[in-house]
Design goal:
This protein has 75 residues and is α+β, with helices and mostly antiparallel strands. It has three helices and two strands. It has one domain. The protein has a two-stranded antiparallel sheet. The protein is elongated.
Length: 75
């Protein structure tokens, strides 16, 4: 990860734990995250900052998942 990515991140990960769910034949990751306040010079609109932070966290959470992990069909 580039140094710029660390400085512009809108959240921190306090804990990340991978769990196996045998009943569903699935593996999941539990994240405990903390959203950070806007940095200096950033748009101070709280709603815009919140939406951008959650979007960035969502992208982070899905970083290692393949498409087929999200599209399982259960018959």
């Amino acid at each position: 990860m580039a140094q710029d990515d660390i400085q512009t991140r809108r959240f921190t990960i306090d804990q990340e734990q991978t769990r196996q769910y045998r009943r569903f034949n699935a593996r999941g990751t539990q994240l405990t995250a903390r959203l950070l306040p806007p940095s200096e010079g950033e748009d101070s609109n709280p709603m815009s900052h919140f939406l951008a932070s959650v979007t960035e966290l969502f992208v982070y959470a899905l970083r290692d998942h393949e498409d087929n992990n999200m599209n399982r069909s259960y018959n």
